[in-house]
Amino acid sequence: MINQDMTIRAATRRDIDVLLAIEQECYRFPWSRRQFVDELDNPIAALDVAVVDHQLAGYLCSWLICGELQIQNLATSPHYRRCGIGQALLTYVIERSQQQGLLAAWLEVRENNQAAINLYQACGFKLQGRRKKYYQDGEDALLLGRKFT
């Protein structure tokens, strides 16, 4: 876990350059600047960032629609991995969504991303299915879900 103070807040346009840098460090097929801007402008989207020692350490983009939370994107800067950033962001977003009537949460994760699968399972997500060739490189996605009713 992190020893430093961590805060979680809504992302702003001023964060986009750092979000892009983290995204490019974490993913083979990273989101574009336009995708981050679109999420900031999307009324159903929330883009939350974790800040440690004045440094953006990770982010989580989610949509809450009719009681269902869809995790769109979660990433932690490699400098802050295994410090609890991802779990803190996920817990924060779930707790906020519960105050807004959360019934279920869903996400897709690469079948070979064991670290992410472990995180989601530790947060109560369970395997619900598989999306064949979901990613642009042909890798399958595991569909994970959690009910809150």
TrEMBL record:
GO terms for cellular component: cytoplasm; ribosome. Keywords: Acyltransferase, Cytoplasm, Ribonucleoprotein, Ribosomal protein, Transferase. Residues 6-149 form the N-acetyltransferase domain. It is found in: Cytoplasm. InterPro entries: AcTrfase_RimI/Ard1 (IPR006464), Acyl_CoA_acyltransferase (IPR016181), GNAT_dom (IPR000182), N-term/lysine_N-AcTrnsfr (IPR051556). Its EC number is 2.3.1.266. It catalyses: N-terminal L-alanyl-[ribosomal protein bS18] + acetyl-CoA = N-terminal N(alpha)-acetyl-L-alanyl-[ribosomal protein bS18] + CoA + H(+). One of its GO terms (molecular function) is protein-N-terminal-alanine acetyltransferase activity. Coiled coil: none annotated. Acetylates the N-terminal alanine of ribosomal protein bS18. Belongs to the acetyltransferase family. RimI subfamily. This is [Ribosomal protein bS18]-alanine N-acetyltransferase. It comes from Pelovirga terrestris. The lineage of its organism: Bacteria, Pseudomonadati, Thermodesulfobacteriota, Desulfuromonadia, Geobacterales.
